[in-house]
Design a protein that fits this description.
34 strands; globular; 4-stranded antiparallel sheet; 6-stranded antiparallel sheet; alpha+beta
Amino acid sequence: MTPERSGPTTAVATLSGAAFGAAAVFLGAGVVAADWPEGWAAVVCALILAAVGVTVRAAGSRTEPAASPGTPAAGPEDAVPGDGQGLGKTTTTAPVAASRGRSSLVAAAAVWALALLAGGIWAVSAGDDDARDDTAEGGPTASAKPTASASLDGRPAVAWTVPGVGQKYDKGVGSWGLGSAVVQGRIDGLFAYDAADGSVRWSVPAPTREALCGITPDIEEGIGLVAHGRHEKPCATLLAVRTSDGKVMWQRKLGGKGLVEDALAVGGTTAVTAEDGAVRARSAESGEQRWQRPVPKECATLAVDADATRTLLVEQCGNGARLLALDTRTGAQRWTRNLPVESKATASVVSVSPAVVAVDEADARGTHAFLVFDDKGATTASVPLSGPEGVLSASGAVGDGRTVRPLVLDGLLITLAEHESMVPDRVVAYSLKDGRKAWAYDSEFQTSALAVEPDGRVAFLGSDASVTLLDPATGKAATVLKPDVAELPDVSIEPELLPVTGGHVVLNQILMQAEPAAFALR
């Protein structure tokens, strides 16, 4: 090869090596990632492979042996097949080889510099894109990474799942959160799942041909109540269960029409139930009756709930209704308040202290609202079940919104609302003092369940299996926890969200398709 042709030939060889390397990287990326590098990623791949090719070429030029002056040309017998230096041509002299090595090193340094520059631009632009994507996931005030006070990872994994059981449209009756475990009330019994791995810690199976038909909304002193019933028969078997190990503390058969739907509670060490013809209180530990209050003639119990000192009872008598506050330990009446009802109604107790009930009557022009009362029974605020913020969700069969247990937290009533669609898409808070809206948070996805975090923040579950944590004072999103998996677990139409140690558990209480009965995000 003559000195005049060595430069172009070197460039051709270098570019050929770089092109081959770039093609190899693109092919490998396509096979491994099932996609092709695009934008700055593609530029960086090409430049890095080009730099590698030029560097290899430069190294070869530096180590290539040079012929001494006057060395005779290689003859045909010395030619290496494919080398291109046989056929009687003279070899490159030492000065030309050194010059070519220096040129290759300069070219390699230049290409490496370009690759590093492109990599820096790619990293900055990728960070901007991630920030824009994270903000879009949780709304304009949301962050897809935990705040400094957050103890949870912003991209949790699906730690475990429990397969769905039973028939399509089977409906669970409720749940309890225990911190290190969750308890799910399924129609086939009560099951406690370990929050760490989903294993069944204990279970209380329902008897043959009986289904779980009632459960207390909360537990007190480590005890909760459940009830069983046969098909088209009263919900008439009452059990008290110790949540530490699933031991059945006692069991009672109820007479007449059995338990009033959703009318059982535990307040302190007292179990309170609305049964056929009476409201009864028993020892939560032994089942021994403490007091009873007969239901007046022509009256019916609509709802009951209790804490350690107060029991709230909603009764309908004819077309009127009233709210009564009883002493949980003795049954003594503390106060009563007539409700603004003049037709048949449904009701639920949202909170015992402070006293908040949801009332929905048959009269279209009647009362359809959350009602707030002070400690003497005076009404302090009213929040319509349907208004400017949308159709609000309540517990039980109250109202036209989805069945969700609202939260009462720090002087606020917090619930979900169907604002711009026929499914809940907003979390809204109202003041318990005057019923005015305190804040609202609009979600990109359907909102499905509410819970209070151990640190006091409000959590809601999205239909995309994400959990968003809100500041209860302002409604601003502090953290968005979205599972970092290709295939998200399905969320059913009335799920429950339970904070647990190190994460959250989602319970699908109605099985629509192939949803898991439960899954954990950690």
